[in-house]
Amino acid sequence: MTQTMHRTATWRGMTIAKSDHTVEVGGYIYFPRDTVRMDLLESTAKTPHDLECPHGVQFYDVVEGGMRSPRAAWSYEAPQAKMKPVDHWIGFWEDVDVK
Question: Which of 14, 43, 60, 61 has the most C-beta neighbours closer than 10 Å?
């Protein structure tokens, strides 16, 4: 786990998260939930594979203006010790650019 400096997550040129306090775990950057535009995220139904996750993963589609990036964000809702520092924080991948 590494504390990082200012990071921004963008999707299709739109800022969806911005924070001076992010955390990197396993190569992914996590944003505190209160720094994320949750109005642009829709929770997805959990797959059987999701239900096997020991950290209680919840995936989100990023949506806006009729456009959708499926399962491009996630959070851990019941993290075990290793992921506890990012409990309910939001991570991004796929179409979301984090810099």
Answer: 60
Which among 75, 80, 79 is positioned nearest to 90, based on CA atoms?
75
Reading the block at residue 33, the tokens are 């939930």
Q: Give CA–CA dist 21/52, Å, rounded.
A: 30
| Residue 3: predicted pLDDT | 74
Contact 41, 60 (CB under 8 A): yes
pTM over 0.90: yes
Mean pLDDT, residues 15-35 taken together: 95
The CATH number for 2-98, chosen from 3.30.1490.190, 2.170.150.40, 3.30.1330.60, 3.40.50.1820, is: 2.170.150.40
Q: CB of 62 within 8 A of CB of 72?
A: yes
Q: Which of 50, 54, 57 is nearest to 28 (CA)?
A: 57
